[in-house]
Amino acid sequence: MKNYRFTPAFTMLELVFVIMILGIVASIGTEMVVKVYESYIVQRAEHRASVQTELSATQIANRLSSAIPGTVYRIRTNNTYEPIESDFPGTTGDDYKGIQWVSADTDSFSATTVPGWSGFCDVDNSTQDSLSTPGSNLSLTNTIISTLSNGKSIADAAVYFPSERFGQGISGITGNTIISLDNNVSRIVEHYKLAWTSYAIVVEGGDLFLYYNFAPTPAIPVGNIRSLLMEDVSTFKFKGAGRTIRFKICKEENIGDSTVAACKEKAVF
Description:
- The protein is built from three helices and 14 strands.
- Helices cover 26% and strands 33% of the residues.
- It has helices spanning 12-64, 106-109, 138-149; strands at 73-76, 81-83, 96-103, 130-132, 158-160, 168-174, 178-181, 193-195, 197-204, 207-214, 226-230, 233-241, 244-255, 258-268.
- The chain is an alpha+beta fold.
């Protein structure tokens, strides 16, 4: 006669309860994983937008720091220009698409221990059409301008005296310390700045562009040489007061059916 040994096991009811508990745990775990992933996507988008906005704002601030006072203009959407320090004529920020300025040539100024242009005039040895600028290495300036501009020369540059909104054209150089001017000037002072290019920051099609390598003259068309600073720009606002310029840029990042945004604001003196 066989002896049967019964081993304890789950009853059907217990199995049902176990399956239900496992299902509940699985659903909670899946929801947690989805939330963690969604949080990661949002944080990644916010970080990317913040980094790109900071880099663009820093580049704009660095460029603006070399702006010659009096040459910074607002660009309206109809491509007209207004001095940035002037009052807004009953318009809103949406009526403007960018700013433009003439930049001092900091590249050749600080290239070597002997600057390309010293920024000082010997008034006694200068004339109405010729500036004596001791301590300069104008041949170096000419070489650097040609290299950076893809073929221009110091003859494409301009001299700006303090408190002048428009510069004096250059016809050439003599040696390393004499700048010949296109026209006679009525007043020569001890300090000057040399510029060979203007810059413009413009929003076009929702993207932010830097225009460069066009004539060092305020409030002229920006040309067609540009580089992309940032895509999907939702805000670019700016205001001038005295010699201070404040600007704010915001960038959007799409994450499925929604967006996140990051903004940076800087002041340039």
